[in-house]
Prior knowledge:
The chain is an alpha/beta fold.
Amino acid sequence: xxxxxxxxxKVIVLGGDGFCGWPTSLHLSNLGHDVVIxxxxxxxxxxxxxxxxxxxxxHPMGTRLKAWxxxxxxxxxxxxxxxxxxxEHLLDIIEKERPDAIVHFAEQRSAPxxxxxxxxxxxxxxxxxxxxHNVLTAIVQSxxxxxxxxxxxxGVYGYGTAGIEIPEGYLEIEIPTxxxxxxxxxxxxxxxxxxxxxxxxxxDQLFFHFYxxxxxxxxxxxxxxxxxxxxxxxxMLDERxxxxxxxxxxxxxxxNRFLMQAAVHYPLTVHGTGGxxxxxxxxxxxxxxxxxxxxxxPAPGDRVQIFNQMTETHRVRDLAGLxxxxxxxxxxxxxxxxxxxxxxxxxxxxxxxxxxxxxxTLLSEGLMLEVTAVAQRYAHRADLSKIPAxxxxxxxxxxxxxx
Length: 403
Ligand code: NAD
Ligand code: USQ
């Protein structure tokens, strides 16, 4: 089962205890990279705050790492550090570990959580912006040529109907000049965030642009769609390595929620008309994409490299229909708690990963396995009172809203 890549690096994974970060750390370690996890375990504390738990029983970090050494005969080191607040500690870790690459997952990633209250908005902005800015500053201060791989979101492009296939980060434009000529430029695709969380990802892009231009930091920004599934080849090796599975109204993402809801016979919770189209990727492909990003760094002097990390797009009501046909689940339509378009089209380019060897896991292959192997298996751990989405996008009375 040990994989062996000829390309071996020292990699720090910020946020390596999380849903994407944990399986990525194991995958990179399995390939022979020397992996160091940095995490402040804030996601576990948010579970305490929300009184919600992963459907799957995730183990403490110490147990996870011991299990990995036993199973794979590889070592991963762990530092408990708040990268948004403890700059000196982060810098020490970078100077001591001397990484070739840093993968940055360490942000508050739930859109509904980021919209719950002024406290949650401020926490998300303070945490995410300071985390990203601290990492960039620490890379520059360390004086090392470290490739930063950041997990961004396809949500930075917004969810109106663009009318074009969304390019990988940069938009070609033509501008008429005063003399009537037309000049061409490539600019960052216009920012159109749909939540405070998504807004922090748009702001991250400006940090990357500046530190790349000013200090020559080599950066890859992965604009990732909604991740579905739970386990990867590595997390399946031992029960103690199991990945988290969020299903609550704040952190559960739409497809995993539908799979869990089907397993516990809860009507599938479609928001609004379900006409929202979104991009998706399986967790196994997430870890593979991060590997490909590390193996294909930008050359010195290159601008920020942006990959769209998604494999297919689906409409929410079509996903509900698919899960319902497979499992017999009922579908329920709820007033949408978010402020988003009821219906949108979405076409996203993802040629860069496909051309570098990504072989996507499609919904049609893995869906039922996920229902039986994970959602049904751990259904007894579900707290149904945590399923409703309670976070509202708008607190202002209707009369005060712009028309
Ligand atoms: P997660 O919440 O499960 O993991 C994030 C990890 O980062 C957690 O372990 C948390 O404790 C840690 N963290 C947060 N702030 C930190 C800080 N200040 N210092 C140290 N550690 C900190 O989220 P995830 O689903 O694994 O997402 C990881 C990244 O991928 C996020 O940046 C998210 O925006 C992006 N992403 C996720 C999805 C998805 O569907 N899950 C989709 C697209 C993009
Ligand atoms: N939705 C439902 N029913 C539900 C849950 C969600 O209809 O029970 C709808 C939402 O209203 C929304 C869509 O499904 O229209 C997607 O919601 P989501 O919670 O699955 O995903 P989102 O909030 O967009 O955020 C997730 C991750 C985030 C990541 C983003 C990628 O939490 O970290 O950045 O997916 S993207 O969607 O491309 O912006």
